[in-house]
Specification:
The complex is a heterodimer of chains A (975) and B (535). Chain A is mainly β and 975 residues long. Chain A has eleven helices and 51 strands. Chain A is globular, with a radius of gyration of 32 Å. Classes of the chains: A mainly beta (975), B mainly alpha (535). At the A-B interface, helix 1, strand 25, strand 27, strand 28 and strand 29 of A face helix 1, helix 2, helix 3, helix 4 and helix 5 of B.
């Protein structure tokens, strides 16, 4: 089925739905009246009463009474007022309708969005977590990912970077269970999208589906968990403008403390003389450097030309009436980098509308456009290259020659980072995304509705670069290099995604409202077309049934069948069922003593079990591909199919002490099997080019638990809440191949292996036994790597065969964060509010690689660039410091450059993620209200023993620094 | 309209929409070609031959496989990039995890796998003239032999499999090296005899009878099958197809690179689709705005190996002291030195090279400058300093036939007039002073076999510097354990009355290094392999 014919079918749907809707035909006029009161029975004046789908409306008088004339037999009335939950009521041949409105703040949690439908939270049997939007909306975060740090049990974000225009880190939900992309599925208003381009200000709700029973509705990609985002919509009765603006200054948390000239010279001479090479610097030069008479360039300082800062302004203009609502949300954010050229700008516009076409027919039409503009240096396209370059320099190198020539930059090994900033040219990239999301709903009656969803998304990107001619001269003024004029541009592969979904939704109270049934069934097709040749299609059928028996026993069953074009013919369909059961113990009669006294408010236990799939892999991998030179590129696999995951979840939720204490605990086991490994190594005699095949191989288990608790209370004007969470995930390979005893290697990564019992990502290296102290020890040792010298690492010969090789490698741990915890505190006193989030990782093994660990850059070519950090210098092996933390200083290739426990270090940390102080003014004049001014500090304090720079990231050879950010912001509503 | 009817409409719609779902999911790679679709006609066959040469033997920029870069594994030269896979092999800093070993092993083994498939299916494509099919088929079979020559020389026992393999039979046990050689030497000669004996006018890089025989001769010598080497050498000499080019230096410059009768196996433009060559980038100095990267530079050990103009070792030179020669490599030396190497004080592009001037791009501490202070002049043309080249290279020259003949005869102790004539031909062409260097002169008459061995080995080293033969030579002579246990040194100067040489790195070579290790990955993927001793 091609796109064209699919479009035709979509058109057909619409016509059909419109036709169905128009069958309600106009009748004669009549009047309806009634009274509107609040929950305590007080009458409410000024309540808007609107006829859905028309411009007809009125308001209640001082006594809360209203009277409205309608022209149709039966209509739906919308009752709304600021501060109260909106209600829709069908006239159903009545002429008098009294309404009770609930206060708006109550009951927000009562309904939870799960997989294309909403279920009363009390009726949920699966594991679902909500993000407290209060904590996100009201603070200055530039990227939505940051909101997931320390806010939801089981969700981790290792934020390694603050680079403008890049993703701050990968979110993982309940560990990693795949060799493919492990990031969760993100659904924005029912359509698959990414977190990166969503402005936090536009979000109403974030829900995280963690277990199989909840994620199974998204069967095909639910294995990594699902994040559901609902954006804000307008309200029927009011016009208002919300604005939020903040400005932040970023400050590097920790910069590498490289040694200065004199120490660099000493260490360089030390390394060379130990290696029998001629020393590079004379004693006179070292002395001069010591006295400050020699070049001593701080390259990091040279390239960080300014403070990084960012700014965000967003506005939302919303309103509505009987015919529908709208919300226009505009956002602008710019983030500036550390030199005068670099920065990013994001522009976004979202227009969400609800159109009440007829009484029973509603259309949600949302339009979204987003542009990310990234300005970088041509020499720094990935944002980190400039820093890598600066880390390769050493302090004895001058930026400029001491000469009369203008811009007489000195090139060192062909590079000079400052010249790259000012003469290396500019690189600009644009990433555009636009979406259209149409969601018609037709209410057949109160209990039954049909819903459709057609969404379209297109992603485009383009970039250009430009460099003017610049000439370099050597110290004698002779030309040495020319950076020639260069201009170019290219377009990225753009992708357009079309999704069409049709659903039938049924909701009914039965057995005299004691029981409730929810049923949804539907089907979905999805097509991704790329402007290169690729095309991916998916098709699914799904159904879900929730049944609440007397509000005590809750049953949930889901089934989804998914077909994906990525797999081999005959292997394309996967079936993913799941089930859940929950028991609301507090609703049992025998608990009434405890509940009536207010001591016990809620006690719920949940169990779920299900299977979900994963297909996040490149298309066509199973196929035979022979190139023009006759190479079979990969060994084809006609059995290539879905990766699957069995999940079990147990949860308990407790609310006690008159709703003051909330405790919940969950434990889970995720067992993945038929894992997709697209680079499975095959023997070379197969004659394939890449020597790989895509296979379904191996089993992995993630087991974990999550505990969270919060206490909230108030005393007079003072209210507070304190919360905390602790969770852990342990990850284990159960089968690393076709049999339990198999081991699996990763040809591109010798420092990792798979065998039964090891973690999915691991440090597989040598155990060390101190350092060789003198030449005699080196000579006497049988088992050593070639060219070992005194001061080098002595590796343990595990099997005693006199050779150090792979047989001596052992499991040195895994890089995953264990025992994640966070605490948060919210205080409110009159108009003041204060909140703090602290987040930490109790146990993590980090790897000190790159220049963060080694004294030189092990780049695989000369291995001699770069400068040791002072920390290395102070802890290196010398004949006088034999019991040292690190081996000797070296240059060139070295036996020390192997993964061993020497280069692993404790990367646990505790970080004050957020500190925020706010002051609110309820009303200024007639039209400005809810004004709030706040000060915010992100990542201001870090406590860690990590020997590298940033505990949320392993070492490296130079990256854009991790920043702490300090901001001031203002929010206001105008109406 | 009843509720039921609406629901029925809805269900009908959904069913209509999802009919043909299986079609909707049937997406195949539009770029994919299957083997059957690919292998059609003569040109497909030619492209297979072409890429089978290009990927492994005649690639124009791949420094891992370029023949001149191979000296970086030996005491002749230093390769400054670890990723080129020469440096660690030369300095001994390797083990079974070193990437070089999986790189070379997989490259060759996967080519064998593919050659097996194409040879088994060589009757599939349509070919106008059956003789063409036979020729291509034999060239492919010759390439398969070449792979096994290289593989057995590097690893010893390897899997020996001449049939197409899929996942079920691609894991083969190893076959002893001697058994493989017993099979492939006669096979090589048989294939050669079935090939045309004249060099081709197009695609002359492909095997003809004599080029395959010359290759077989090389590996006969490597594997100490001296009589076979002598016979093959004699056959090539007697064919009259090849001769020494009168000017040694011109062979490696544009004067004669494509205009000589000496190259037997060619790496010419046809073998890399007419692309440019990068020998200036790889070997040339970073000079001004040009692209010289000094990836491979000669070492003092090679510089000092050149004969004096009279054919003496520098330590035996009657006119000058060894010290004088070390300080000035141009002093009264074998003209092949100047044709092959340049260094401090020499002229390049009308500039005098000064490796100790910190302001010069050629300053020896600069990354793109030579760490030894020397550069190869072979394949480095000033014409390429600011543009890329179009060199034709000789992968096997007639001089090798002569010196192989002489060496094999010396090894079986038949040092007769034909041996001396072969050596003299090479020396005379090189421009040595034949009044002194002629090996028929009385000063050579008392030479013992060991002295002859020493002479022929050094002659070979000088003649083929930067042509990639040295590493194999020092392994088969079992001299690697001496010469690769010496540090890599560079330019020598006098400092406070002492000789001081640039010291690049210490090197080590252990007994077990004569055979390469199988990479750990290969051992895991192919359980039939057995690690060589010592790794």
């Amino acid at each position: 089925m091609g796109i064209q014919s699919m479009k035709n079918k979509l058109l057909f749907t619409f016509s059909l739905l419109v036709f169905l809707a128009s069958t309600a035909v106009a009748q004669e006029e009549r009047t309806i009246e009634g009274t509107v009161t609040d929950a305590e029975g007080k009458s409410l004046p000024g309540v808007n009463v609107l006829v859905k789908g028309t411009n007809i409306g009125t308001a209640t008088n001082a006594e809360g009474h209203y009277e409205i004339t309608i022209s149709e037999e039966n209509v739906t009335l919308i009752f709304s007022m600021v501060g109260f939950e909106q209600q829709e009521i069908n006239t159903q041949d009545r002429s008098e309708i009294d309404v009770v409105l609930q206060e708006g703040t109550v009951g927000l949690d009562e309904v939870t969005v799960v997989g294309y439908s909403e279920v009363e939270t009390e009726h949920l049997a699966s594991s679902v977590s909500k993000v407290e939007m209060d904590n996100i909306e009201t603070r200055s975060i530039a990227k939505l990912q940051e909101a997931f740090s320390g806010t939801i049990p089981g969700v981790t974000l290792m934020q390694g970077s603050n680079l403008p225009g890049s993703v701050p880190g990968t979110i993982s939900i309940r560990g990693i269970s795949t060799l493919q992309n492990a990031s969760p599925l993100v659904i924005v208003d029912g359509m698959e999208q990414s977190l990166t381009d969503i402005d936090p200000n536009q979000i109403k709700d974030i829900t995280v589906l963690k277990d199989a029973a909840s994620a199974a509705m998204y069967g095909s990609r639910g294995a990594n968990g699902v994040i559901i985002i609902e954006t804000k919509r307008g309200a029927a009765d009011r016009f208002m403008v919300d604005v939020h603006s903040w400005t932040a200054i970023d400050d590097p948390i920790k910069l590498p403390n490289f040694v200065g000239s004199a120490n660099y010279m000493r260490l360089n001479n030390e390394a060379r003389s130990m290696q029998g090479q001629s020393e590079q610097y004379t004693q006179q030069e070292v002395d001069r450097a010591e006295q400050g008479e020699y070049t001593n360039t701080d390259w990091m300082d040279t390239i960080m030309e300014r403070k990084a800062y960012s700014h965000n302004t967003s506005a939302s203009i919303s309103g509505g009436g009987g015919v529908g609502t709208f919300n226009l949300m505009l956002g602008y954010i710019n983030e500036n980098g550390l030199n005068n050229y670099e920065g990013t700008q994001k522009f976004s516009a979202r227009f969400n509308t609800n159109i009440n076409i007829a009484d029973q027919f509603e259309l949600l039409a949302d339009f979204y456009a987003h542009r990310l503009q990234v300005d970088r240096l041509n020499a720094n396209r990935d944002g980190h290259g400039l820093y890598r370059m600066a880390w390769e320099m050493n302090p004895t190198q001058e930026v400029f020659y001491d000469s009369d020539l203008d811009n007489h930059y000195k090139l060192h090994n062909d590079q000079n980072p400052l010249a790259s900033i000012h003469h290396g040219g500019a690189y600009n990239a644009l990433y555009d995304r636009s979406t259209i999301n149409l969601r018609p709903k037709y209410y057949i009656n109160e209990n039954l509705h049909l819903a459709g969803n057609v969404s379209y998304m297109v992603n485009k990107s383009a970039n250009k670069y430009e460099r003017d001619t610049f000439k370099f001269y050597d110290g004698d003024g002779e030309p040495v290099d020319v950076w020639q004029n260069a201009v170019g541009s290219s377009q990225g592969v753009s992708r357009s995604q079309i999704t069409a979904r049709a659903m039938i939704n049924y909701e009914q109270n039965i057995r005299k409202d004691k029981d409730k049934i929810y049923f949804i069934a539907g089907s979905e097709i999805m097509n991704n077309t790329y402007t290169d040749y690729r095309e991916i299609s998916k098709s699914s059928f799904f159904g879900k049934l929730n049944y609440s028996f007397d509000n005590r026993y809750l049953l949930e069953g889901t089934a989804r069948a998914d077909g994906s074009s990525k797999f081999a013919p005959g292997k394309r369909w996967g079936f993913f069922p799941s089930g859940a059961f929950a028991w609301n113990i507090h609703n049992e009669n025998f608990m009434s003593g405890l509940t009536d006294s207010g001591f016990l408010n809620r006690l719920k236990v949940r169990f779920s079990y299900g299977i979900i799939g994963n297909e996040d892999v490149d298309p066509y991998l199973w196929q035979e591909v022979v190139n023009t030179w006759g190479w079979t590129m990969r060994v084809p696999n006609p059995d290539f199919t879905w990766e699957k995951q069995k999940q079990q979840n147990v949860g308990i939720e407790l609310t006690t002490f008159e709703d003051k204490l909330d405790v919940s605990f969950e434990a889970y086991n995720k067992h993945s099997y038929d894992l997709i490994y697209s680079d499975f190594p095959v023997p070379p005699l197969t004659g394939s080019y890449y020597l790989t095949s895509s296979v379904n191989i191996g089993e992995v288990e993630n087991k974990g638990w999550e505990l969270s608790a919060s206490w909230s209370d108030q005393a007079g004007d003072f209210s507070y809440s304190v919360g905390g969470m602790l969770f852990n995930n342990e990850n284990k390979v159960l089968k690393a191949g076709y049999a339990k005893s198999d081991t699996l290697i990763f040809t591109d990564d010798p420092d990792m292996i798979w065998y039964r019992g090891i973690a999915i990502d691991n440090y597989y290296g040598y155990e060390s036994d101190g350092y060789f102290q003198n030449q005699q020890e080196v000579d006497e040792a049988d088992a050593k790597l070639a060219n070992t010298m005194p001061g080098d690492i002595r590796y343990v010969d595990q099997n005693g065969d006199g050779v150090i090789n792979n047989q001596d490698k052992v499991n040195l741990g895994d890089p995953f964060p264990h025992f994640n915890y966070s605490i948060n505190l919210d205080l409110n006193y009159k108009r003041w509010d204060f909140s703090a989030i602290g987040q930490g990782v109790g146990q993590r093994t980090g790897r000190l690689n790159g220049l963060e660990g080694y004294p030189v850059k092990m780049d695989g070519s000369t291995n001699s660039l770069g400068v040791p950090r002072e920390y290395y210098m102070n802890n290196r092996w010398t004949p006088d410091n034999r019991d040292s933390r690190f081996p000797r200083v070296w240059t060139g290739s070295s036996p020390n450059d192997e993964l061993s426990d020497v280069w692993l270090s404790d990367a646990s940390f505790f970080r004050i993620k957020t500190l925020e102080l706010g002051y609110s003014i309820p009303q200024i004049g007639n039209s400005i209200r809810d004004v709030r001014i706040y000060l915010n500090a992100q990542d201001a304090f870090t406590f860690t023993n990590w020997e590298g720079l940033e505990p949320e990231r392993d070492g490296g050879n130079g990256t854009y620094p991790r920043m702490a950010s300090y901001s001031i912001g203002i929010q206001a509503t105008i109406n | 309209m009843s509720v039921m009817r609406k629901v029925i409409y809805f269900i009908v719609f959904i069913s209509v929409g999802l009919v043909g779902c299986e079609d909707f999911l049937d997406k195949t790679d539009p770029t994919a070609t299957s083997f059957d679709e690919f292998y059609n006609d003569e040109d497909d066959l030619r492209r297979v031959v072409y890429s089978s040469y290009y990927d492994v033997f005649t690639h124009h920029y791949n420094r891992e496989t370029l023949f001149y870069m191979q000296d970086g594994k030996s005491d002749n030269a230093y390769s400054r990039l670890e990723g080129d896979h020469h440096q660690r092999i030369a300095n001994g800093d390797f083990n079974s995890n070193t990437e070089a070993f999986s790189y070379y092993y997989e490259l060759q083994m996967k080519h064998l796998g593919r050659l097996n498939t194409f040879i088994a299916n060589s009757d599939v494509p349509y070919v106008e003239d059956e003789a063409t099919r036979t020729k291509y088929e034999n060239i492919l079979r010759g390439l398969r032999i070449w792979h096994y020559f290289k593989l057995t020389f590097r690893w010893g026992d390897v899997p020996f499999h001449l049939e197409p393999a899929d996942l079920s039979n691609a894991t083969q046990p190893t076959t002893p090296k001697e058994e493989i050689l017993e099979t492939i030497f006669p096979l090589a000669i048989e294939i050669a005899e079935n090939l045309p004996s004249e060099e081709y006018t197009t695609n002359k890089y492909m095997f003809n009878e004599y080029s395959l025989k010359a290759l077989t001769m090389r590996y006969a010598l490597y594997n100490e099958r001296y009589q076979m080497a002598i016979d093959l050498a004699r056959e090539i000499m007697e064919s009259g197809n090849y001769e020494l080019h009168p000017n040694y230096g011109h062979l490696f410059q544009y004067e004669a690179d494509s205009d000589n009768n000496e190259f037997i196996i060619h790496q010419n433009q046809e073998s890399y689709s007419g692309s440019t060559t990068y020998s200036f980038r790889d070997l040339g100095p970073h000079y001004r705005t040009g692209d010289g990267q000094s990836y491979l530079v000669p070492l003092k050990s090679l510089v000092d190996a050149y004969w004096t103009l009279d054919g003496y070792r520098i330590e035996n030179c009657p006119q000058h002291t060894k010290r004088e020669h070390e300080l000035d490599p141009n002093l009264h030396r074998d003209p092949r030195y100047e044709a092959s190497i340049m260094g401090h004080g020499d002229l390049f592009y009308e500039d005098t090279i000064d490796i100790y001037n910190e302001n010069s791009p050629m300053y020896h501490e600069n990354e793109r400058a030579s760490e030894s202070g020397y550069w190869f002049r072979k394949f480095v043309s000033e014409a390429d300093a600011f543009s890329s080249g179009n060199f034709e290279f000789g992968l096997l020259r007639y001089a090798e036939v002569l010196l192989t003949y002489a060496e094999a005869k010396i090894m079986i102790d038949e040092i007769d007039a034909s041996v001396k004539d072969a050596i003299n031909q090479v020396r005379e062409r090189a421009g040595l002073d034949m009044s002194q260097a002629d090996v028929t002169l009385p000063r050579y008459s008392a030479y013992t076999r060991d002295q002859w061995i020493d002479l022929i080995r050094n002659e070979r080293r000088i003649e083929f510097a930067a042509e990639g033969l040295r590493y194999a030579d020092i392994k088969r002579w079992r001299t690697a354990e001496e010469v690769l246990n010496e540090p890599a040194l560079g330019h020598t100067r006098e400092v406070n009355g002492e000789l001081q040489s640039l010291h690049i790195e210490d090197r080590s070579f252990e007994d077990h290094n004569y055979l390469w290790p199988f990479h750990e990955n290969s051992l895991k993927v192919e359980p039939g392999l057995e690690q060589n001793p010592g790794y």
